[in-house]
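for the recovery benchmark. tokens below, seq after
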């Protein structure tokens, strides 16, 4: 069977040596976007640890930063099998760098492969919690694509380790959000209005010209519009008044 037919029918690749050049390039692109986003997200969230209102919240923030950094390291190990220079990767970009709060970047990449939402700065503890919840829910949905990846080592890592942790990060955020909705609902509403469109952009264009190619390779499965709709449907559970 031709490799393209094998992948289109749900076949799996288990080692870098078995991956053809175009497949390798697209897989590395996906993994680099994940690694850069985790490193940038961890770096931004680390700055809010000292803003946490109590020890429980501070420990939760530390755990999120630690595990996101660990996720990046684990996927970097997979990239190393394809020849990526992992020794200098983590210091290649200033992961903590942010644009102005009122900037409008759209969904484009800027300097590295992080999702555009991780270029915007957090504004205090409540803002960080709101962003963590909105982006956490989006992340779990987006990573479900990787959990079905035709590259078996990545699918296994996502399904067994990374997605359960990312789901737990979101749960920690939602617990903090519930307390904030009681004590400072106005700040929560303002932060949600700021972050919602920026998180929505991480799903990409509704009609992606690359989607069919990636689906044929087994690297994508559901269109951007379907993933975004699932995310938006879930927001009503926690932000019923958000327009």
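predicted aa per position
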């Amino acid at each position: 069977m031709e490799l393209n037919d094998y992948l289109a029918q749900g076949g799996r690749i288990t080692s870098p040596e078995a991956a053809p050049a175009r497949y390798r390039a697209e897989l590395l692109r996906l993994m680099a976007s994940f690694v850069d986003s985790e490193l940038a997200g961890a770096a931004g969230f680390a700055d809010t640890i000292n803003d946490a209102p109590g020890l429980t919240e501070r420990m939760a923030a530390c755990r999120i930063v630690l595990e996101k950094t660990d996720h990046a390291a684990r996927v970097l190990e997979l990239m190393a099998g394809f020849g990526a220079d992992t020794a200098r990767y983590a210091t290649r970009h200033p992961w903590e760098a942010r644009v102005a709060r009122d900037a409008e970047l759209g969904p484009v990449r800027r300097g590295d492969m992080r999702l555009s939402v991780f270029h915007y700065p957090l504004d205090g503890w409540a803002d960080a919690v709101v962003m963590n919840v909105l982006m956490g829910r989006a992340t779990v949905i987006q990573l479900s694509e990787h959990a079905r990846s035709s590259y078996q080592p990545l699918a296994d890592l996502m399904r067994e380790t990374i997605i359960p942790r990312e789901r737990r990060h979101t749960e920690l955020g939602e617990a903090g959000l519930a307390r904030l909705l009681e004590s400072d609902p106005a700040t929560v509403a303002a932060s949600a209005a700021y972050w919602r469109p920026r998180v929505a952009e991480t799903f990409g264009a509704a009609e992606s010209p690359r989607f069919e190619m990636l689906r044929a390779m087994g690297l994508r499965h559901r269109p951007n519009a379907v993933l975004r709709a699932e995310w938006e449907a879930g927001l009503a559970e926690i932000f019923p008044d958000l327009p």
